[in-house]
Predict the structure.
Amino acid sequence: MTNIIDIRKEATEAPYEAILWERGEVTALYYGFAQDIDLRGRVVGQENGNAVLWERGETTLLWPDGMAHGLNARGQAAGSGFINGSGQAIVWQDGALTALGANTNAYAINLAGMVARAEYSYPYKAMLWNPVQ
């Protein structure tokens, strides 16, 4: 099975629209940015400024004011957003959020739940967050 996610926008159109191509069918994921897809065809990204999960035509809000960048096969999503006024990396699982530290962004999450993240304040550092430390 091949799934492709993309963002389309004509020069005269606004806003951006994420799309999913699966088995020759194109599905619009509405106004947003698609960032990652898993083997089940679930897609994470951003819609109207919020981190979301698209699955079988349904949109699930993961957290407001943010973007989901990564998704693993266990359904955990990682990304960035604001919690208590502070921008930080976030992990979402089954409706629960885990903040990974102020001034960080999360970019990917593996099957073990380990998250690749980076600080966005000086000194800039790449980091690995391990949920079983």
